[in-house]
């Protein structure tokens, strides 16, 4: 005999396979505390409106408090036969308090209940993720200040382009994360409306007070349309889109960390506690954490596509398809949160091989643009200057030397406009210090930007 809450209409119990096929409690039990919170607000509101007596309300609240303890302490008797988190809790409530428990579902449906639970869950999850983002950002700002003077090659096409400071590169990462943090705040703001009262789809004939339940649960307002309330999963999609973009950013950082930690680059040393060894090659120290972050970005992208595809064919209003929204959403939350934790712990703890960074910038004709700019200041048109420096670089490549290593006479073969003062602009430090404007790579700018970013975070 099924323990279901709807046996009245049916002439035979649910098929055993269908029971298993349709159960969701093995994953939606994660929403239990939010479900209880929603039920408490609903019961209080019903009593306020005279739909429940005060005695019934008190019995329900007491029963729910006991259930909360069971959940928190891991003693709650979850049953897959009761399908989902809602029916497990309601069934348990009636077991604990009797008749009054059967009245809790007045003026409510699992459809508005689940829409509320998921929003409450995601609101908390966003707060946690944004805190973790901010922690990582603070770590990057410290690292940026520590390495404000460290010169490294900046790349385009992964070819040495112009010298930049390591600090400036860290601030580029921090900008990506700041946009991610804003996107999540935006998503939170839009999801913070309360679906309770939409009931199954059309609302309810009971004299409910939707403003009261919305306020009690910390929502900004009740949702405006009951059909939309139970069928909308935009907020979950928005979160997954923001999460997937943030994971894409983390994945790009991971890629750079992996490259930089390789002996060929040798720019950084990752702390041993964040690396792993090889079961066969004794010399290996592998950047697995960064690689896993890069790999896990694929999960977040999969979660987003799964949700978009889940929704695209659904007519209004609620369809059971929606039960499939939880696993990808939970996965996106967990994946993003863990990736942020890993990087917030690991990245600020890396050490920079400053000599190697400088060496790599020095070896790559990184100041060729500075030489062209110098010629422009001597009155040469930029296009001509570009040509002149191109020829000088070709000469230096063949001679196996870098530009500052060429003598003055050697340089003057390419342009008589070159004078002794050219060496000042050919140095790496001169090059980065000259880019001293908003958004530029000069150490002074890095320090100013780090300070401004810290104020935005506060
Ligand atoms: N487990 C369901 C879900 O996740 C809860 C709502 C079920 N509603 C229904 N009419 N079967 O969406």
Automatic annotation (TrEMBL):
EC number: 4.3.2.1
SUPFAM superfamilies: L-aspartase-like (SSF48557)
Keywords: Amino-acid biosynthesis, Arginine biosynthesis, Cytoplasm, Lyase
Sequence ranges assigned to domain Fumarate lyase N-terminal in this UniProt record: 8-302
Gene Ontology molecular function terms on file: lyase activity
Superkingdom of origin organism: Bacteria
Reactions it catalyzes: 2-(N(omega)-L-arginino)succinate = fumarate + L-arginine
RNA-binding found in the keyword field: no
Subcellular location as annotated: Cytoplasm
Leading EC class: lyase
Keyword Magnesium: no
Pathway: Amino-acid biosynthesis; L-arginine biosynthesis; L-arginine from L-ornithine and carbamoyl phosphate: step 3/3
Domain Argininosuccinate lyase C-terminal: 365-433
PANTHER family: ARGININOSUCCINATE LYASE
Family note: Belongs to the lyase 1 family. Argininosuccinate lyase subfamily.
HAMAP family tied to this protein: Arg_succ_lyase
Protein name: Argininosuccinate lyase
Species this chain originates from: Halorhodospira neutriphila
């Amino acid at each position: 005999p099924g323990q279901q809450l709807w046996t009245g209409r049916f002439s035979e119990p649910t098929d055993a396979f269908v029971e298993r096929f349709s159960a969701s409690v093995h994953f939606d039990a994660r929403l239990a505390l939010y479900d209880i919170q929603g039920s408490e607000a609903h019961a209080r509101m019903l009593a306020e409106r005279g739909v429940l007596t005060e005695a019934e309300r008190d019995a329900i609240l007491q029963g729910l408090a006991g259930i909360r303890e069971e959940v928190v302490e891991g003693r709650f008797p979850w049953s897959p036969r009761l399908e989902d988190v809602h029916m497990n809790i309601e069934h348990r409530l009636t077991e604990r308090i009797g008749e009054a428990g059967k009245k809790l579902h007045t003026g409510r449906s699992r459809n508005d209940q689940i829409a509320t639970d998921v929003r409450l869950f995601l609101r908390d999850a966003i707060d946690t993720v944004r805190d973790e983002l901010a922690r990582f950002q603070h770590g990057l700002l410290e690292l940026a200040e520590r390495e404000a003077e460290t010169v490294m090659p900046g790349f385009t096409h992964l070819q040495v382009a112009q010298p930049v400071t390591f600090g400036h590169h860290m601030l580029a990462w921090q900008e990506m994360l700041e946009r991610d943090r804003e996107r999540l705040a935006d998503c939170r703001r839009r999801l913070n409306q309360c679906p309770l009262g939409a009931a199954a789809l059309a609302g309810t004939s009971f004299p409910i007070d939707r403003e009261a339940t919305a306020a009690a649960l910390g929502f900004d307002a009740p949702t405006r349309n009951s059909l939309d309330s139970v069928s909308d999963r935009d907020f979950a999609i928005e979160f997954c889109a923001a999460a997937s973009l943030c994971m894409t950013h983390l994945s790009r950082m991971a890629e750079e960390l992996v490259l930089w930690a390789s002996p060929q680059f040798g720019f950084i040393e990752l702390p041993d506690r964040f690396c792993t060894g090889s079961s066969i090659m004794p010399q290996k120290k592998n950047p697995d954490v960064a690689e896993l972050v890069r790999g896990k970005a694929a999960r977040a992208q999969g979660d987003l596509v799964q949700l978009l595809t889940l929704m695209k064919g659904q007519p209004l209003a609620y369809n059971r398809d929606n039960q499939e929204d939880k696993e990808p959403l939970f996965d996106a939350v967990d994946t993003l949160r863990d990736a942020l934790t890993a990087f917030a712990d690991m990245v600020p703890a890396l050490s920079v091989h400053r000599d190697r960074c400088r060496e790599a910038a020095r070896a790559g004709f990184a100041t060729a643009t500075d030489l062209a700019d110098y010629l422009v200041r001597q009155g040469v048109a930029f296009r001509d200057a570009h040509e002149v420096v191109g020829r000088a670089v070709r000469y230096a490549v063949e001679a196996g030397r870098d530009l500052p290593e060429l003598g003055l006479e050697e340089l003057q073969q390419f342009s008589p406009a070159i004078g002794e003062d050219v060496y000042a602009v050919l140095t790496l430090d001169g090059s980065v210090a000259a880019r001293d404007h908003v958004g530029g790579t000069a150490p002074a700018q890095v320090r100013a930007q780090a300070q401004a970013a810290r104020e935005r975070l506060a």
